[in-house]
TrEMBL record:
It comes from Panacagrimonas perspica. This is NAD(P)-dependent dehydrogenase (Short-subunit alcohol dehydrogenase family). CDD domains: SDR_c. GO terms for molecular function: oxidoreductase activity, acting on the CH-OH group of donors, NAD or NADP as acceptor. Belongs to the short-chain dehydrogenases/reductases (SDR) family.
Amino acid sequence: MTQRKLEGRKALVSGGASGIGEASARLLAAEGAAVMISDIDDANGERVVREICEAGGVAHYRHVDVTNRTAVRRMVHDAEATLGGLGILMNNAMTNPSADYTEDQRWDLMLESGLSAYWAAATEAAPILARSGHGAIVSIASIAGARLGIDFASEAYSAAKAGTIGLSRKLAKRFGPSGVRSNVICPGVIETPRWRSPGSPEPQFARRYRQMAPLGRFGQTPEVAKLVLFLASDDSSYITGQDIAIDGGFTMAFRFES
Ligand code: NAD
């Protein structure tokens, strides 16, 4: 039998009730990690945890709204206490506010959930991750924050994601000496429920993306989860401070209009 990559490890996944977070929580658990999922979607969060446990894994769910920084910090200590330690932090949840909010409100919600919460969770968790002896922070940014002023990404979204990349590099520098690694994943379009929510981009942008990405398709959540697993495990033990695009080649390719 092959050795599971995360046997005995403990992981906290924000936004684990759906999409990239859900697929990652499932894979981390399948590879032996005890997982705590946090989210505001209690029904789906409980479902994911139940299914992980039914498959023989260890998982817990907590309702945590990542727009509340105090709750984010509390979540880290809750995870440590519940799991008996913490070695992996996946910063993934981000609010996608609907058009019902004002532009100011949308800016605040996106920056708070998609950047400030990542900072609060990481800085709160770092000493705990260091004690595990194999600490890893994996944050989810986007190609919208990495290389491009992408048409369908709002200014707030792009700013939060670009900020996440800068934050992750600083975390890598600050906590590297205590053995904690910090890396960022920049997905292109990944097929998740986000693409069906009210605040999501128009279908024609998605179509255009598919035309422009050399691999000619959207990504799937298990493909991102495998990268999360790589960055969370000892397979990437000498990699820190990096941002890695997983986008079917979209940001690499350039095409003249025909
Ligand atoms: P998703 O909507 O499938 O999942 C996001 C999860 O976060 C949901 O379960 C939701 O309930 C939760 N969430 C939302 N607001 C929250 C809050 N305030 N507190 C706690 N939880 C909250 O979306 P996804 O596509 O899996 O997105 C996950 C991450 O990946 C996000 O940071 C997103 O920006 C990023 N990303 C996604 C794509 C893509 O194409 N899907 C591309 C680039 C980056």
